[in-house]
Design goal:
The protein has 171 residues and is mainly alpha-helical. Helix content is 64%, strand content 5%. It has two domains: 88 residues, 434 Repressor (Amino-terminal Domain); 64 residues.
């Protein structure tokens, strides 16, 4: 990848125009941020490691500084939409599309997966009991299916704990 020579002599992989567009975009989104009784820079500064003054620099199109990713993610959480991620995708010629419900790690997908795994474990137990004679292979099948169901439920428990901590920390 070749660096872009800017009119001021600096070199970057993105143009000064892109930096200016990002800064303007940040400034527009700042006005939409809300947290508690705060708006804009005050709202974002309340939940990040940077001050309002530093955030103002990210909005300044004459300042080549771009908002760090952790601050951008916090801003997107306040906005309730991955707007910076969408802008970055657009700059690179991609579209950002919302995941189809039930895919990924949504609660719906975890629910579907847990039902499927639990049903497979129950099916293995019923098949072992079917002829009244339980074999070593039948018990191995029960163990395999029950372990898979346990792993899905362990993921759900882990996700619940991390989301509880995240939500309590955000209050």
């Amino acid at each position: 990848m070749t660096a872009i020579k800017n009119p001021d002599g600096s070199e970057r992989l993105i143009s000064l125009e892109d930096v200016e567009e990002i800064s303007e975009f940040i400034a527009q989104r700042m006005r939409l941020c809300r947290h508690g009784g705060h708006r804009g820079r005050t709202a974002l500064a309340a939940v990040t490691r940077v001050s309002e003054t530093q955030i103002k620099r990210y909005e300044d199109k004459d300042d080549p500084l771009i908002m760090p990713i952790d601050i951008a993610i916090e801003m997107e959480v306040l906005l309730g939409y991955p707007s910076i991620a969408a802008l970055m995708a657009d700059i690179h010629g991609y579209d950002l599309v919302k995941r189809t419900p039930g895919r990924g790690k949504s609660l719906k997908s975890l629910c579907i997966k847990s039902i499927k795994e639990a049903a497979e474990a129950q099916q293995a137990m019923l098949e072992a009991e079917e002829d009244g004679f339980q074999t070593l292979d039948a018990w191995r099948s029960i163990l395999k299916e029950a372990s898979e169901a346990r792993d899905v439920f362990a993921d759900i428990v882990g996700d619940a704990h991390s989301n509880i901590r995240r939500i309590q920390g955000g209050e």
